[in-house]
Amino acid sequence: MKKIKPTTLFIRVLMYSSAVFTICTIVFISAYILFMGAGNIKPSLFELNYTSDNVSLLPSLINTAVIMSAALFIAVPTGIFSAVYLSEYASKSNKFVKFIRLAAETLTGIPSIVFGLFGMLFFVIYLKMGYSILAGAFTLAIMILPLIMRTAEEALMAVSDTYREGSFGLGAGKLRTVFKIILPSAFHGIFAGVILSIGRILGETAALIFTAGTAVNIAENLGSSGRTLAVHLYCISSEGFHADEAFATAAVLFLIVIIINSLSYYVAGKVGQSGD
């Protein structure tokens, strides 16, 4: 039997221990949230109107869907087209391109409350949007834009140059090659960035408290204030009067994230099988 070196054994033990610790932590947190929250989920939590007696989460759930759709509508096309420019058109030695990449990487690590303060000063006060869904959507779009742009750029750069050369050899132009060959080939990487962005939107509170506000009912339009599900969870848990409803809201939010991730894997798998 081959003798294992002490350093190799140590690294192997450390690797397996880290994996077991991570899995156990995820299982414990997931089980705790579902155990504490699933039993408190009741029909009254899904009523259209929020009252002091019934802290319904349905208005916040609808607001979450609206603000998420608006933020993705702004950020996804902008991020993807920016990534296309950086990877396919811009010169590799261009100082402006290097500055954009550095700025995107820097913005990724900035705390969300900083984005919230910026959104409040610029969108809420300077542009006079007030506390509104639109102000929150613009703030979230700025937050997730670097993530979408960087993941899309990496996905585009990972596409083999033989695809580009083959397309050019068949007489296709640059734009047609990008939209017909490169972008479909990089779909999985781009889609992963979008899913990560959705996860960040669903869990965001600090940036939205300063921009979208904490109004309890369904926003009448994009110019109205409305709290998202994560902000709703923060508000009722900080009040201390509705602990059961807070756990139920946490369980619903957790299940939504699981459903979105499951659907994304399903869609990505179907697209991968079809090759479209």
Task: Summarize the SSE layout with pairings.
Layout: H1 6-38, H2 58-89, H3 95-108, H4 112-126, H5 133-157, H6 161-169, H7 174-185, H8 187-202, H9 206-209, H10 229-239, H11 243-274
Helix pairs in contact: 1-11, 2-5, 2-8, 2-10, 3-5, 4-5, 5-8, 6-7, 8-11, 10-11
Q: What does this entry look like structurally?
A:
By secondary structure, the protein is mostly helical. It has a single domain (43-274), classed as Orthogonal Bundle (MetI-like fold), CATH 1.10.3720. It has helices at 6-38, 58-89, 95-108, 112-126, 133-157, 161-169, 174-185, 187-202, 206-209, 229-239, 243-274. Helix 2 (58-89) runs parallel beside helix 5 (133-157) and helix 8 (187-202) packs antiparallel against helix 11. The longest helix is centred in the first third of the chain and has 33 residues, at 6-38. The protein starts with 5 loop residues before the first helix and ends with a helix.
**Counted beta strands:** 0
- Which regions are unreliable across 5 or more consecutive residues at pLDDT < 50? none
CATH architecture: Orthogonal Bundle
What is the helical fraction, as a range of percent?
Answer: over 70%
Quaternary: single chain
CATH class: Mainly Alpha
**Distance separating the two termini:** 50 Å
